[in-house]
Write a structure and sequence with these properties.
This protein has about 240 residues and is of the alpha/beta class. It has six helices and 14 strands.
Length: about 240
């Protein structure tokens, strides 16, 4: 039942670049009876001691990445346990890098990350790459945007999120975007992804145990989604 769902939004006061916190504002429209927990940075995450159904972490500044890594490091084993238990994670933008091995600065210095997945990131703060994306996840076409100072490297052949149709994956040589293990999804896509992709949103809600979900503004979002994919393919 919807009212039994616990959805935790991590550090929304900081991890909300590119308007990605609208992912959760939209989810509240889709699941208004669910219990939403907005965990501030100075609080212990609810997932540490309680069962939650969905965890969201959005993009942040590079300085904040280092702070979030230190914040979550004591809970690494708990996060891995939740991933193995099929808890849904949605990790967007550069938040994906927190779950890799390390982040490398331009001078070669490295920031150790959680090390849950076999990827690492390299920063180039003088060059931002902006691009559009179309890919496929579990039979659903996913559309979105990227705005990057970093690219990720490493092997995601067995646990990628989306196979690229247009754009690129973890880096410009990759055709595999993001990380997906069980119900853990981490992607460089920003947007916000839930508003841009109504079919993806419905599948995530289904994974929370809601059969045949009716999402907010569904037909309007489907129309916009179809038009966006058509335009992206034509460019």
């Amino acid at each position: 039942m919807e009212e039994n769902l616990k959805i935790e939004i991590l550090f929304p006061e900081f991890c909300n670049l590119y308007g990605d916190i609208s992912n959760m504002k939209y989810l509240k429209k889709c699941l208004p009876k669910a219990n939403y927990i907005e965990t501030a940075f100075d609080e212990e995450p609810t997932f540490v001691k309680e069962k939650v159904n969905f965890i969201y972490l959005g993009p942040m500044t590079e300085n904040m990445q280092e702070k979030v890594i230190k914040k979550l490091m004591p809970y690494k084993e708990r996060i891995e346990e939740l991933i193995n238990d099929n808890v849904i994670f949605l990790i967007t933008g550069n938040a994906i890098e927190i779950f890799g091995k390390y982040i490398e600065n331009e001078d070669g210095s490295k920031i150790d990350a959680l090390g849950i997945f076999d990827i690492y990131a390299k920063r180039d703060m003088l060059h931002r790459d902006n691009s559009m994306f179309i890919g496929t996840w579990e039979g659903v076409e996913v559309v979105g945007f990227k705005s990057l100072f970093t690219f990720a490297y490493g092997n995601n052949d067995e646990n990628y999120f989306a196979k690229v149709e247009k754009g690129f994956g973890l880096n410009k040589e990759s055709k595999l975007e993001g990380i997906c293990k069980n119900n853990f999804i981490a992607t460089y896509l920003i947007g916000p992804i839930l508003i841009l992709n109504p079919d993806l949103t419905k599948k995530l809600i289904e994974k929370m145990g809601i059969n045949d979900p009716k999402i907010a503004f569904e037909q309007d979002l489907i129309n916009a989604y179809n038009q966006r994919i058509k335009e992206f393919r034509s460019l």
